[in-house]
């Protein structure tokens, strides 16, 4: 094998180039540093092979009796310049990836192009012994012609340099460019790639991005704004609307408490008053679910406060039912299972009860002797895991508490307490249990609710797996740094 390298340097050089190509493709991209090291070793072997044959890339190939051998020697020297430019490019790329990460890829490509241009000019000057001034003059004229032909493409390239330098956004940032919203998946020398919430890919040229209005939802911190707008009658006092919408925002547990959600009036007019509920979440993926939940909570809390969303025709008809009767009409369990006569009868046996913020409604493990229906306010649900309590959920108007004690005589492990000032209607167990036993549909609906809550509780009460600490030389160094 070694004799083949020494006796046939051209074949040995081709074999080294083939090994470099194969190793570059075989070694995993995750082991990028090993790939760079392998290329550097092969380049040094290539250089050693060249110098052992008395060839120098700084001089033309020596003239010999055989023209093919002289051409082969010239090809080896030109290949040394190009191979050296490629090796230096990947070394610079490895250093930049550690320093600036993926955002430096465009600069790396431009540096690589510059290195290859220098290598070509050096090969023409040293190996082929051509006049560099003439080559540069010819290449300069050619560059002007190519630049005019590729004016828009060059604009994208230089705009990409500006974007990578100023860094208004980075990979994985959620941004909006002139109203086009998505997550940045890649930034190359020509364009920025966005993945929308629908999963589609949008390609925006860098020249357009550099001139456009850019909104970065991931800056200055990992918080994403979410808001909804509601149109309410101008005849309703704003303070009543504020109270109801504040309870709706408090009922959405996903919203961050700092900064706290805000309720503001966006516009007023004879056609109605537009209210905005705004807050922040920690993930862009949560925005759609939070918006839907806020609309539902706003509807329920406004309805509990006796406020309807503005419609095209407003009526001033008096309320025909009592508050207890109206609550049964909007309860998820009783709205369809009870007839109007049964709702009238049950509502006459409901007692209204007030709870202060922080007051316990039903402790965990206690069998309830009452069925509670939330009329207004927010109720927090807490579980205990390892002796530490944590909030598992929040409840709002129309939801029921204590159904386990009614249908099965069991207790849930959760604590139900008032998060805000709450009004709840209480139905005594002695009165309501015969009604549940007589009505199969009500019994099945409440049993399904009990099973669902028990399943959620068991899932949340499972111990979280402990992270296994990785041990190794790097971790040892970090602990001692």
Helix content: 40-55%
Q: What strand line-up does the widest sheet have?
A: 4-3-2-1-5
Q: What is the rounded Rg?
A: 37 Å
The tally of beta strands, per DSSP, is 16
Largest sheet: 5 strands, antiparallel
Distance between the termini: 47 Å
**SS content category:** alpha+beta
Q: Give the amount of beta strand, in percent.
A: 15-25%
Shape: elongated
How many helices? The count is 17
Task: Report the average pLDDT across residues.
Answer: 79
Low-confidence stretches: 1-6, 465-481
Can you give a write-up of this model?
This protein has 481 residues and is of the alpha+beta class. The protein is built from 17 helices and 16 strands. The chain has helices at 2-7, 9-26, 32-52, 67-99, 105-127, 132-149, 151-166, 206-211, 238-251, 287-304, 323-329, 334-337, 340-347, 403-407, 429-438, 440-461, 473-480, and strands at 174-177, 180-187, 191-195, 201-205, 214-216, 224-232, 262-269, 272-281, 350-355, 360-362, 370-376, 379-385, 388-395, 400-401, 415-418, 422-428. The strands form 4 sheets. The protein has a 5-stranded antiparallel β-sheet. A hairpin with a 2-residue loop joins strand 12 (379-385) and strand 13. Helix 4 packs antiparallel against helix 5 (105-127). The radius of gyration is 37 Å and the shape is elongated. The two termini are 47 Å apart.
């Amino acid at each position: 094998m070694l004799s083949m390298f020494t006796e046939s340097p051209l074949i040995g050089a081709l074999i080294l180039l083939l090994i470099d190509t194969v190793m570059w493709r075989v070694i995993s991209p995750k082991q990028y540093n090993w790939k760079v090291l392998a290329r550097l070793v092969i380049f040094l072997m290539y250089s050693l092979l060249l110098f052992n044959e008395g060839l120098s890339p700084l001089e033309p190939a020596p003239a010999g009796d055989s023209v093919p051998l002289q051409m082969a020697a010239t090809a080896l020297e030109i290949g040394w310049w190009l191979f050296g430019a490629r090796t230096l490019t990947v070394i610079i790329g490895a250093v930049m990836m550690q320093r600036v990460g993926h955002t430096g890829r465009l600069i790396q490509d431009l540096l690589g192009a510059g290195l290859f241009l220098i290598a070509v000019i050096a090969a023409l000057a040293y190996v082929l012994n051509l006049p560099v001034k003439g080559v540069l003059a010819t290449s300069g004229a050619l560059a002007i012609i190519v630049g005019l032909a590729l004016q828009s493409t060059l604009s994208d390239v230089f705009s990409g340099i500006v974007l990578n330098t100023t860094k208004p956004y980075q990979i994985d940032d959620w941004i909006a460019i002139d109203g086009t919203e998505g997550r940045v998946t890649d930034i190359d020398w020509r364009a920025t790639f966005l993945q929308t919430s629908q999963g589609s890919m949008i390609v925006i040229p860098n020249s357009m991005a550099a001139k456009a209005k850019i909104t970065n939802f991931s800056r200055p911190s990992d918080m994403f704004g979410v808001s909804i707008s509601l149109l309410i009658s101008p005849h309703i006092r704003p303070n009543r609307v504020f109270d109801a919408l504040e309870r709706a925002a408090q009922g959405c547990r996903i919203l961050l408490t700092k900064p706290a959600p805000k309720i503001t009036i966006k516009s007023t007019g004879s056609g109605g008053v537009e209210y905005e509920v705004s807050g922040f979440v920690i993930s862009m993926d949560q925005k759609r679910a939070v918006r839907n939940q806020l609309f539902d909570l706003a509807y329920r809390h406004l309805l509990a406060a006796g406020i309807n969303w503005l419609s095209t025709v407003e009526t001033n008809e008096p309320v025909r039912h009592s508050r207890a009767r109206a609550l049964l009409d909007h309860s998820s369990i009783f709205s369809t299972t009870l007839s109007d006569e049964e709702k009238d009868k049950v509502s006459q046996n409901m007692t209204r009860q007030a709870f202060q913020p922080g007051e316990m409604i039903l402790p965990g493990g206690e069998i309830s002797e009452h069925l509670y229906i939330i009329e207004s306010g927010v109720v927090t649900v807490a579980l205990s895991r390892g002796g530490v309590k944590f909030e598992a959920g929040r409840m709002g108007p129309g939801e029921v508490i204590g159904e386990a004690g009614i249908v099965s005589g069991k207790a849930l492990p959760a604590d139900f307490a008032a998060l805000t000032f709450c009004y709840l209607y209480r139905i005594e167990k002695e009165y309501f249990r015969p009604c549940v036993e007589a009505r199969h549909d009500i019994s099945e609906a409440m049993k399904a609710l009990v099973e669902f809550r028990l399943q959620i509780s068991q899932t949340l009460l499972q111990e979280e797996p402990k992270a296994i600490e990785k041990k190794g030389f790097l971790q040892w160094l970090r602990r001692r740094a």
